[in-house]
Predict the 3D structure of the following.
Amino acid sequence: MTELLRATEITKTYHLGRTDVPVLSGVDLSIMDGEIVALVGASGAGKSTLLHLLGLLDPPTSGVVSYRGQAVSELPPRAKAAFRNKEIGFVFQFYHLIAELSAIQNVCLGAMMLRSVRQWFGDRKRIRTRAESLMAQMGLSERLSHRPAQLSGGERQRVAIARALISEPSIILADEPTGNLDSHTAAEILDLIWEINETHGISFLLVTHNEEVAKRADRTIRLEDGRTL
């Protein structure tokens, strides 16, 4: 297996007035191509913070995040955003779909972010076709024009997964992807994640409180007191 992602001595401290609040205190981890890794730890351990740093949504206070040996956390903001939009997909507990857009428009939005207006108009038909294909894989071919409020929680999470897949990322970072779902729907979403991993070879880092999910993963990383165990 080839190493995809490495975090080296990652720290994160937030400054609240004159008070420093350390959250991460020297995290080291690696994820391989095609691997599903569970990230577990108590509430407040810094799991979501770490996910944001690995996804280049927030810079570390110190340390380096590298993808395939490239120190991407040190890239200029524009280059970092371009890398993130192409290589990293995100799935969140509360979906983060745009209420005013249809399901298919929410999926296409991920691809729009990668393009200028001219590029989008040139590519939009191809992207729409790919989005429809992804929605079919999610079992949502009959829900293309539905808005998020018209979808069940499981359907909204499937739309969010399709949106994460639209740019063909190398890894998907998922923050409690089943935490807002009933047990039956959660099991379906997990089956879908494993199917995507097997079919597309995409790596997953799953933040979870669910020990059963952790057991199913290829490997578990535990975060405690701001450090990985």
Remarks:
- The helical segments are 47-54, 77-87, 103-112, 117-137, 153-165, 183-200, 211-216.
- The radius of gyration is 18 Å.
- The longest strand covers residues 3-16.
